[in-house]
């Protein structure tokens, strides 16, 4: 618990977002199973995400009905309030309760609200579709464990709470890194890792999902490719008609540069949507290849005309 206190005391925003499923195997209700990827009765791996209060306040969680978590909801004494995803609207009503195991211990969960359709948590390389998800507060236990089972539950729970995200301005990264090193070293936790990634504002949106954004990105790629081809064609014809022997080389260099310049924004967008760094050179490579092929075709056509 000491590590968590120190993390939340840092002069940076600390967000708790982790996915710990619920065991609803004794329930007669249907839950979305993370392994079967469908709603099943009595799922033992019901999709659930735990969040800190600043996640819902800083990133505009919106509900179709009910209420968001309040301060009291982040202290667990008896029941645990939950906000259900849109796809649960026909299964539960506000005020309903269900029993499930969280980290091997039984709890009673109370439905307090429903998210709007197409709600997501999206930042950096993490994307969580909330439509079929149960959202629960990353609470603090208000009682000491009374058994070995409760002790294990609380131990894992607090470990999860320390695996969050810290939002750090780029000019303060070194300060944050050394602060984290000091916290972990003083706590004697053994081996640990600290990773970083560019931060994209988390969204709880009601619109486009990644597949739609990806389609729009690819449409942009087609437009860029077409424009680049037209410019290539005119430039190549102009240079060949002037009789310059170095036309092919100069045009190739110019178009490769143009392709790299134009596709930067598309590359970054694809990385954000797909989360694969290998995607970055792909648009550049495709644009350059297409244009070099077009240069070859134009030069061949010009030579045939000359003969």
What does this entry look like structurally?
The chain has 307 residues and is α+β, with helices and mostly antiparallel strands. The protein has 2 domains: 2-187, no CATH class; 210-306, no CATH class. The chain contains 8 helices and 15 strands. It has helices at residues 2-9, 53-58, 148-161, 173-187, 210-241, 247-262, 264-274, 281-306; strands spanning 13-15, 17-18, 30-33, 38-41, 48-51, 63-66, 75-76, 80-84, 97-102, 105-115, 120-123, 126-129, 134-137, 140-141, 165-167. Strands 2, 5, 6, 8, 9, 10 and 13 form a 7-stranded mixed sheet that branches. Helix 1 (2-9) runs antiparallel to helix 4 (173-187). The N and C termini lie far apart (83 Å). Mean pLDDT is 77; it is low at 200-209 and 271-281.
> How helix-rich are the residues, as a percent range?
40-55%
Query: Any idea what the shape is?
Result: elongated
How is the main sheet built? 7 strands, mixed
Strand residues, percent:
15-25%
Number of helices: 8
Low-pLDDT residue spans: 200-209, 271-281
Secondary structure tally: strands = 15
- H/E series: HEEEEEHEEEEEEEEEHEHHHHH
Rg from alpha-carbon coordinates: 27 Å
Whole-number total of structural domains: 2
- State the end-to-end CA separation: 83 Å
Integer average pLDDT: 77
Helix and strand topology:
Elements: H1 2-9, E1 13-15, E2 17-18, E3 30-33, E4 38-41, E5 48-51, H2 53-58, E6 63-66, E7 75-76, E8 80-84, E9 97-102, E10 105-115, E11 120-123, E12 126-129, E13 134-137, E14 140-141, H3 148-161, E15 165-167, H4 173-187, H5 210-241, H6 247-262, H7 264-274, H8 281-306
